[in-house]
Specification:
By secondary structure, the protein is of the alpha+beta class. Helix content is 38%, strand content 26%. It folds into 2 domains: 144 residues, Jelly Rolls, CATH 2.60.120; 75 residues, Winged helix-like DNA-binding domain superfamily/Winged helix DNA-binding domain (Arc Repressor Mutant, subunit A). The radius of gyration is 19 Å and the shape is globular.
Length: 226
């Protein structure tokens, strides 16, 4: 499905596309399209030729690898307004992970080759993009720090607090974006460990749990544990 011109302002807010001028974004959008996926639909497999990168409009996409025993290791959960598979076009042009829709999802699909041609024609744009991607890499390094240097409790609390506005108050409800098993894999822990930490937080009076909804009862104490 072709991309509506009404979506162009949305594209400029993304880190990869923000260095582009309005004219350059219009050019990229001409080769882009809308892709809809049902829950459980695989977008691409590890080893597939990487012809596109994507921006999530709605829904949730998980990026993962399969261990030799068949179990999934979730590397990232991609939420609305996040982009993914963009770095592959600068590498060996095959997807290094699997990508599957966790829930019904709508994506903007970009043509990788067209984007590379745009960079080749405009070296100034390429340098602007390098600066933007450097900031993105810095953010990913911080994520690695969270996963490797922090305890399971710290990682889970950080995940719950992620994205909350500064003015959030006690009692704010956070809805888990995926199953506990998927989130546990993303945080580098077993589902049993994930459940034990949630139980400990409930026992401490810091959260209340109702299915996928978690009510954060004491934000100050939760932040203190980070």
């Amino acid at each position: 499905m072709p991309l509506s011109p009404a979506l162009l302002p949305q594209l400029s807010r993304n880190y990869l596309l923000s260095p582009l001028t309005a004219q350059e974004i219009s050019r990229v959008a001409q080769r882009a399209g809308i892709r809809s996926l049902d829950a459980g639909t695989m977008l691409f497999r590890r080893g597939d030729e990487a012809r596109h990168f994507y921006l999530v409009q709605s829904g949730l996409i998980k990026l993962y690898r399969l261990a030799p025993g068949g179990e999934e290791k979730v590397l990232e959960l991609i939420r609305p307004q996040q982009i993914f598979a963009e770095a592959v076009m600068f590498m060996e042009n095959i997807y290094p992970v699997h990508a599957t829709a966790v829930e019904p999802s709508t994506l903007i699909e970009f043509d990788s080759q067209d984007f590379l041609e745009l960079l080749q024609e405009n070296h100034t744009l390429a340098f602007r993009l390098m600066s933007s991607m450097s900031r993105r890499i810095h953010g990913l390094v911080n994520e690695i720090d969270q996963l490797t240097l922090h305890s399971g409790t710290e990682r889970l609390i950080g995940f719950l607090l992620q994205g909350l506005p500064e003015q959030a108050e006690n009692g704010v409800v956070v809805t888990l974006p995926a199953s506990k098993q998927v989130i546990a894999s993303r945080l580098g822990m077993q589902p049993e460990t994930f459940s034990r930490i949630l139980h400990k937080l409930r026992q401490a009076g810091l959260i209340e749990e109702d299915g996928h909804d978690l009510r954060l009862l004491d934000l100050a104490q939760l932040k203190h544990q980070l």
